[in-house]
Write a structure and sequence with these properties.
Layout (H helix, E strand, L loop, with lengths): L1 E6 L7 H14 L4 E6 L2 H4 L8 E4 L8 H19 L3 E4 L12 E4 L8 H9 L3 H20 L2 E4 L2 H11 L4 E2 L6 H4 L8 H6 L7 E5 L9 H14 L5 E5 L15 H9 L6 E3 L8 H6 L3 E4 L8 H8 L4 E4 L2 H7 L3 E4 L4 H12 L2 H15 L4 H15 L2
Parallel strand pairs: 1-2, 1-4, 2-3, 4-5, 5-6, 6-7, 8-9, 8-11, 9-10, 11-12, 12-13
Helix pairs in contact: 1-16, 9-10, 9-14, 12-15
Length: 388
């Protein structure tokens, strides 16, 4: 029996917690597998130890990525040895440089190789973030070279890893678990439900993300201003699962420019800032909207695309290789930094009932091609191949 130690201590926001929440049930379902999972305290509270899955955590939690990295290099090997694990799965882009057992690295942060991101950060004069990302990127590059096997969630990112490090990564797509995503039948909290009440005839766009620079919020905001004029008298509403307020989002990304743009374009009545919605309730939000829109200029996989397609929402996505890989013909694509093209593409989908219906059907079908069970099974196969 393989004993897998999963270091998910860096799963603090975004796709990290989503990965853990979806993978744990499939690890637990494997009778031929034992798993020990290192998670942040807030995630540890969501799970209970099972016969073949146990959870551990660090004492205390630091906001500093550098301190977390140094601490992991010192403490994780001890935890791995104490657990008796035979393979380490490092799930947070950073590998152990002296792993006591064979190590699989899940590499999933495309910021480290994105010229667009570094240009964007320089233009915003956020030099501290520029330097921080450069340093983390160097550690991530060393990590790819230190691991016994590196796994990427998409072919697009695997190709980028090879260009960046010279190491060929194995592609194992992330999955989607329809039963888990839609299992919560309880309604949304009353306050949130009121904010989602529909006005007759309005077009509802949805973007699921914390605020950050690389999701390209400003292009989307400008496009909403154009859509408001093009679709008159039909109202346009953009629903965000974040708030454009200082300190309201993970990380050090500054929201002031986006909030100022909303005021300058007089779009306050067209934006609905829902704030963070618990993962188990997100399906209610998708099903209350009409189109899913993502203007991101860098991604490694993009779980919300699967969630949107499984919810029947047509997808409008920026023209990235990874978006094409995930959605194929089920989405419409636009030039990433062009609010004009984004607005045109939304109009195309919104004004053609036949196109809208076809995209919805193709999205539902495409979402069924992704499976967390298949993802876990393939990761375990990689682990087995590393053992003598």
């Amino acid at each position: 029996m393989i004993h897998l130690f999963v270091d998910a201590s860096a799963a603090s926001s975004g796709s990290g917690p989503t990965y853990v929440r979806n993978v744990v049930p499939h690890l637990a379902a494997r009778a031929d597998l034992r798993s020990t999972i290192l998670v942040p305290p807030f995630l540890q509270q969501e799970f209970q130890n099972r016969s073949n899955v146990s959870f551990v955590g660090f004492a205390g939690e630091s906001a500093s990525a550098a301190i977390r990295f140094v601490r992991a290099q010192r403490l994780v090997p001890e935890l791995v040895l104490r657990s008796g694990a035979s393979v380490l799965l490092s799930a947070g882009n950073m590998a152990l440089f002296r792993s006591p057992v064979p190590q699989i690295l899940l590499s999933g942060n495309a910021l480290y190789t994105s010229g667009d991101f570094f240009r964007d950060v320089r233009q915003r004069r956020d030099y501290r973030l520029w330097l921080d990302t450069k340093l983390k990127g160097q550690i991530a590059k060393w990590s790819v070279r230190a691991a016994d096997r590196t796994v990427a969630p998409s072919q697009a990112f695997a190709d980028e890893i090879e260009r960046w490090t010279g190491v060929r990564a194995l592609v194992i797509h992330h999955g989607f678990d329809r039963n888990l995503f839609f299992q919560e039948t309880a309604p949304l909290p009353e306050e949130l439900q009121k904010r989602l009440e529909r006005t007759s005839g309005e077009l509802r766009l949805l973007f699921v993300s914390h605020y950050n620079y690389y999701r390209n919020f400003e292009t989307l905001i400008r496009a909403v201003g154009m859509l408001r004029k093009r679709l008159e008298p039909r109202q346009v509403k953009l629903f965000l699962t974040c708030r454009l307020q200082p300190g309201a989002n993970p990380g050090s990304f500054r929201t002031e420019a986006a909030a100022s743009l909303v005021r300058r374009l007089e779009l306050s009545s067209n934006l609905v800032e829902l704030g963070t919605v618990p993962y188990h309730l997100l399906h209610h939000v998708y099903q209350a909207c009409d189109l899913y829109v993502t203007p991101a200029y860098v991604e490694t996989f993009a779980h919300p695309l699967l969630e949107a397609m499984a919810s029947g929402l047509p997808v409008i996505a920026s023209d990235l290789a990874v978006h094409h890989e995930v959605c194929r013909d089920a989405a419409l694509y636009f030039a990433t930094f062009s609010p004009e093209r984004l607005a045109e593409t939304v109009c195309k989908a919104a004004q053609s009932p036949e196109l809208f219906r076809r995209m919805s059907e193709q999205g539902l079908e495409r979402s069924q091609d992704f499976s967390w069970k298949d993802h876990v099974d393939r990761v375990i196969s990689v682990a087995e191949a590393l053992l003598p």
